[in-house]
């Protein structure tokens, strides 16, 4: 595991050099431009050219972002760039490649293994990818429109691509081939008596995923052979999709409690719930992952309904009402955790560092991510 806490902090400004203005197409700007060109788009869908945006905000009485709100939006922009990077990798091999999400050419056998979970998996992967790309492009454009600094992680796009046919050969920000995935969100959302904000701890749905480094995409042609190994890779992806999206589901409400500008709050409250929509969809599909053991590494996917425990039952995908704020209050159905007194931003980053999503990244990358999280952590809370 990479211990990012021991790395020297570097100025976040180093990575945040303002990206050059995007070139306009058809009188507007492609929100995909930042992926296609490797440069953060300066204007997102719906905002119009930069000049117009600035004027519009000025006309509405919105001024420059305060430092705390800017730090929060910058961490979110970084998180969304990372999400977009990983979802693009999934889409190239397991999703639908089209004008909206170009890049790969797909892996027939991986798609078939994913479709064991649900036949619409390629469409959902495509649409989740599209959403993350839009989140990143919008947040960076919004930052700029309010006088803030956009986030550009392009210099860290150095991790290798899968060598399986269908994947583009380009540098990546994230590593989907050595994941140590924590699936305790499964029981966290099924518990009626515990809440992580009140000290609750939760058992993982697939303990084996925490006991090694597992790929969620075929790494090469050998991984694409139909059978339990490839199905285990697709199952890993199915659980990883939820792991990512439950993180976003928690991050937005956590940080929303710290912003001060009503419009920034609106941005967070409008994007955050889409992460929950993703989580809910994937949560339903993960329950369809077939029980099996990967013959190559012993990774076991248990039959979650066989335990007889409500904590594992696959169709209990709605958040179970549980304790919130004080144990004396009635149980309530909620996102969890949302406590922002602790280290909401740093915890979020640490969770994904720990799962190995950035295995192979440079010390500078971890230092940058830590810096962005720390700055968001220090942002003032709403009065
Ligand atoms: Fe997102
Ligand atoms: Fe997301």
Q: Would you kindly provide a brief summary of this structure?
A:
The protein is an all-alpha fold.
Please explain how this structure is put together:
The structure is a single chain. With 383 residues, this protein is an all-alpha fold. The protein has one domain (4-377). The protein has helices at residues 33-37, 50-59, 67-94, 108-114, 121-145, 185-188, 228-256, 262-286, 344-354, 363-377, and strands at residues 292-293, 300-301. Strands 1-2 form a two-stranded antiparallel ribbon. Strand 1 and strand 2 (300-301) form a beta hairpin. Helix 3 runs antiparallel to helix 5, helix 4 (108-114) crosses helix 7 and helix 9 runs antiparallel to helix 10. The two termini are 38 Å apart. The structure holds fe (ii) ion (2 copies). One fe (ii) ion (FE2) binds at residues 83, 132, 245, 248, 275, 278.
Spatial strand sequence of the major β-sheet: 1-2
**Structure ligands:** fe (ii) ion
Number of helices: 10
Give the helix level as a range of percent: 40-55%
C-alpha Rg (nearest Å): 20 Å
Coarse shape:
globular
- What is the arithmetic mean of pLDDT? 86
Please, how many domains?
Answer: 1
pLDDT < 50 runs, ≥5 residues:
1-61
Amino- and carboxy-terminal Cα gap? 38 Å
Give the beta-strand count: 2
User: Structural class, from helix and strand content?
Assistant: mainly alpha
* H/E series: HHHHHHHHEEHH
Quick one: biggest sheet? 2 strands, antiparallel
Please state roughly what percent of the residues sit in beta strands, choosing from under 5%, 5-15%, 15-25%, 25-35%, 35-45% or over 45%: under 5%
